[in-house]
Amino acid sequence: MTYQQKVTIGDATLYQGDCMDILPTLGKVDAVVTDPPYGLGKKMQGGTWGAKTEFKEMVVWDTAPPTVDFLLSLVDLSPIAVFWGGNYYGLPPTRCWLVWDKQNAVPTMADCELAWTSLDANTKRMSRPVGRVENGHPSEKPLDLMVWTLRTVKAKGTVFDPYMGSGTTGVACMQSGLSFIGIEREPKYFDIACKRIEQAHAQGQLFAPERPKQEQEALL
Predict the structure, then answer these.
(1) Confidence check: pLDDT of 63 > 70
(2) pTM check: above 0.90
(3) 3-state secondary structure of 84
(4) Which pLDDT score is estimated for 215?
(5) DSSP run (H or E) holding 145
(6) 61 phi and psi, to 5 degrees?
(7) How far apart are CA 141 and CA 24, in angstroms?
(8) What one-character DSSP code corresponds to residue 112?
(9) Which position among 1, 67, 95, 102 has the lowest Cβ density within 10 Å, counted as fewest Cβ atoms?
């Protein structure tokens, strides 16, 4: 067996295990949207939140970022690929970067974060404050940022996140009416993701899918 646990919640399938082992068992998907480790664990031990006792495990799992070859293998799975932190990996040039402008970033942290995409489209930016860590993962993305990401790249069908963390992308998919496949290696974060996605599934879809441009014009 390539995974420790497999949990199905509505249209979400969640695996606890190493994505390198599980990936060969999966087929094509409609979009890959993920926030992999950046390899910054040892740099996050200064006088910021990264030095907090509850986040000390970050230095363990955020020391070996994925290779370019592995990330490009994810691109082969889907017509849409989005990698937050994509500027750290040496990926091929892209015209469509996603930019998170952190309105209240402290001087010791980055003013913005970048996502590499496989799309031939214009670069887009979202400005929003950095929120508090609400679900126990030291580098979790804000939920509204991930909802914006899905809408910006026009994700449809099944979204795959091989570095699921605390499940934010999965929650965004549940709220957007999308199917989701997630993989997380750390049992602690996998359990958090299962709980959050189960709650989001129970709540139901919050955002209606975007209408095609022709339909929008017909409504004017």
Answers:
(1) no
(2) no
(3) strand
(4) 44
(5) helix 143-152
(6) -90, -10
(7) 27
(8) E
(9) 1
